[in-house]
Design brief:
With about 850 residues, the chain is of the alpha/beta class. Helix 8 packs antiparallel against helix 10 and helix 21 packs across helix 30.
Length: about 850
Amino acid sequence: MASLIVVSLLPYPELERLLRPWLLVAFGAEVVLRFTRLAIEKAKERSDWLYLCIDVLAWTSFLPLEHLLGVDATWVRGLRLVRLLVLIRFTRYLAQDVWRVLTRREQLQQLGLVTTSVLALSFFSAVVMNHILPDDPTVQGSFWDQMWWSFRQVESPDNLIAHLDAHPLVVILSLGLTITGIFVFSYLIGVGTTVVELVLRAERRRPVPYHGHTLVIGPMYESELLVREFVRIHEKNRALRRISPADLWRWLTHRHHPTPRRHALPQMALLGPEVEPPPYLYEPEMRWVVYRQGDGVEAESLDLVGATDSKRAILLAPPSNAHDPDAITLSRLSAIRTINPDAHVFVEVTRSENEGVVRAVGGVGTFPLDASRLVGLFLCHHLLVPGVDRLFEELLSARGHEIYTHLYVDSWEHRALDLRASKEGTGGTVSFQALQRFAQERHHVTLLGVFLGDRIDRKQRDLIPVDLLDAWVNPLAAAEAEGASAAGRIPVERLQGIFGIADTYVPLRASGREVLESDLGAPTSGDLHAAKAVVDSIDREVDPPMERIVVVGYGHALPALVDALAHFVPGVSVHVVLCGDSPDAARWLRKCGIPKAGGRCAIEGGGTLAIERCERDELSEVAAERAAVADAAVFLADAGATDSDATVSMRVLRFANALRRGSEKTTEIELWPDDRERAQDRTAMPLRLLVELDSRHRGAQLEGHLGGGMSQAETELVLVSTDQIKNYFMVHSAFVPGVTSIYERLLGSRGQEIVRLPVAWLPDSHESFTFGGLRAALAGRGCIPIALSLDGELLVNPPCARPLKRADLEAIYAVADMDSLDEIFPAQS
């Protein structure tokens, strides 16, 4: 409409005659739509009716009044100029801010001072010239002309008299006025700069004009990684922003296909305590991200970021130095739920015992993220599954393939499900292996499972109630989900969605929709023989088990790490070396029943937990001594340190130095006294060194400092950034509905986990295989392959028909039951 207004004002008669009927129809339709909108809306401003009257008045200028009335209607065309006021409407908020700033008392005084000074100088100069030099030819015109001449001397140095042959008084006046004008306008520039700064501040206090956006509340200066990942994953899925011609054609030709929909841009509103926005928001890709300053507890601040209309909210924990951060986060959650009870809210919790309180306050659609437990689970799997750090880095970042979900919430999908259920009959099922094959061959998607439950529909703001569904991970293994009758068979009546690994959401959505109406077909043999040979060569004894772990220092993730190791590794022995008197550590020791000075206790699965106290300066050396008979050493982020990463880095460097020169102590190791040969055979089995750091950048620095101090034959260094884990997990939980429950099944409970299946090296094997054949071969053993380690390179979800060299294959990463691996893949030796 703005473009049509500009075209209608162009002074070209021929163009006006050609476009006049079309402009009459277009502007008439606009008037009708604007009147209809104002009649329906409850909240409207008086200015809206004023602009409607202007529209009607301007619309009459396109009527052929000269033919209807028989008069010259040239003056009527002048009414079109009032449409310029409509264009001003687009900038009315900025104009209002400028008006508010300029009409403040301080600005009025400053502008009044400048105006008065300029007028007084001009008047004084004109009076002097008029009274002292009344007959001088240089001074011409009336008194007002002389005053205008004086004002021009003040206004610009270009108006200074060009020659010195004028009267000396005129030269002095012109020079004095010009020099004074320079100072006056310098002062005016300063006033203008202040006005612009105040206008910008006022703009930041204006409510965000977003609907259905993502709201993030917390320390925004420390959340750059989260914001960048959110923008990056939206940019990766930018195909969802446009309606594809194929979807439009299917909608037109098939009655039951969905109406094509455009998904939202990466609209994000940040609410933080700092006045100025974080510097990273000024980058080009951040143009859809806005920042407002305020407190997440205050209703005014929540209004600034459009909390009432937000689709999802992410509540980050306050900085670690804040007193009782969970209480602050809980108050923010309560404030959001007061004005927006429907949005999905993802809450970062620092203490596990507060998770239940968060669920009770937030209600349905609230997803607490126990950061300490999450980090502990990730650290545990980094210990148990060699190389899983690279796999998680790709699955949880927008740089590779991720886990996506598609749920059947549209009416046409419900009709297609009913039709398929009627074909299968009561209690009918569909083969999950057939679903896998269809998704992988058609759309390059590795299905991991399905969602079961009762039928669900979209809620307000296009939200999906994922709380009501049960995620069935790896249906090939066991019928453990509610409503499932047999392993590998999906009950159609309970099927409500699928999830799997894909490059973007688009192929998974296509797979989920097409399996409702397509014939899945029969399996083909393909290269199954070569894939079966690969499966037969899997030898789990290649990777030594993690049975003895040394943990150095106390961190928030320590209780969760110990619980996860005891949960997943029966009979594990964990030796924790502590220093200092942390209240959290003392509370945890009391819970375990261990005295403050140290001791040991039994843990789940027949394992043992031992606590050893030492001085801070001896921590790394004692840890190196204990690591002589351990399978792995874990350095946790120090919860009580001012700079945790610096403290941990120093401990690791001292630990590496102690390992390199050998322990200087002769203290007998109390935890495993019957394992002397293990200390002598330490070089035959590399020590896995796992280091937890807050910042991912410190990891590269630590690797550079270690250099060649720790040879690969002695240690296997793995660096884990807790900041990266928390932010990546939070973003993907908010972007992908239901992914939180999937990772909870994979990381937090026994049954289906991500495992590494090492393959015995066969130098004479030059045969090739495909990922599709490997999927079919492992399906009979209840495993789902998701990635391959080929000659040091990790391939996540490779194409199913791509030939792969058997000789390059090192290991297979799969989703399987860790407890059943000994039965599924018996020992080769």
